[in-house]
Amino acid sequence: MANRDALRAFQSRLAGRLQAARSTGVSASWLAVEAGDAKYLFPLGHAGEIFPWTQPQAVPYTEPWFLGVANLRGGLYGVVQLSTFATGQRSAAAVTEAARAQSRLVALNELLEVNCALQIDRLIGLRGVEAFTDAAAPDADAPAWMGHAYIDADGGKWQEVNLQALSQQPEFLSIGAA
Length: 178
Known about the structure:
The protein is of the alpha+beta class. The chain has helices spanning 2-24, 82-87, 97-102, 163-166, 170-173, and strands at 30-35, 38-43, 47-52, 66-72, 75-81, 104-108, 116-120, 122-127, 132-136, 146-152, 157-161. 24% of the residues lie in helices and 37% in strands. It comes from Variovorax robiniae.
């Protein structure tokens, strides 16, 4: 119950910050998250509701990055471990219970018409263009869903993820193990 209260408080603060940003003219463009060893930026228009970690029901004969399906607020969502999918690992990394406590499920916006939630390790908050000092276009051989890479003032690299492009990729939609 404490986790739900903390999540509600976080979502209230996030909504307040979004409202404040709208009224002051500052635009927050991304939801910043960590998954594995990487930092990602989800466009706010593509990200949906944020849920506390819910253990998905495993589905046999699926890719290692597909954790299963979960009932999130009455809807059935496929749960993808972003860190494993993004790196192309052949096995999902083991996660401790302490790490799961910070883990969240970020649903894709319902306008994308894919009932999917990405499992991320930690929410960082909102980021706008002003939070970064440099940007680089994706490499020519990068997946179509990878956007620009941004560098923050501390030298940290943030990878933009185009959730709309991701939701349409055949390799993302094909969860069956090869």
